[in-house]
Known about the structure:
The protein is an alpha/beta fold and about 150 residues long. It has helices at about 5-10, 20-35, 60-70, 85-90, 105-120, 120-140; strands at about 15-20, 45-55, 70-75. The N and C termini lie far apart (about 70 Å).
Amino acid sequence: LAPHTAALFDADLVYLITSNHRRSMFMNRDVMGSLVSKGKLDPAKFKLVLNRYRNDTSWDLPTIEAYMGLPVFGLIPASQKDALTEADNTGRPFVAAHMGRNDADDERVLKAFISLAGAVCEPVRTLAAERERKQRGLLGRIGKKP
Length: 146
């Protein structure tokens, strides 16, 4: 094992991020297995995050969990137009400040990121809920006749 893996032993949690492509899951499962068997890392530290998840493949969530040996902790759905790559390529930030101003596909991905961040850090969940509440309040007032 590489010397930098020592940081994993001090970590409370290790987020294993993979897509639901067979090769990606195979490689990540292999790395996790090596860290557990050779590195003696506690398997309870691992949290599985699926990135760019597509539910139109033969790898559904129960199959993935069984294959990886972990329950899914977080899920970021695939974007129809690959919103993250597009944002990066155009220099347009893909951030919570844009919540409510994106198309439905981008909003779905953004909300999944916020949900995952909130699961990792409670203040993020609280801030996102407050932002959404304020937006609904403002948007609810727009267009209503007095």
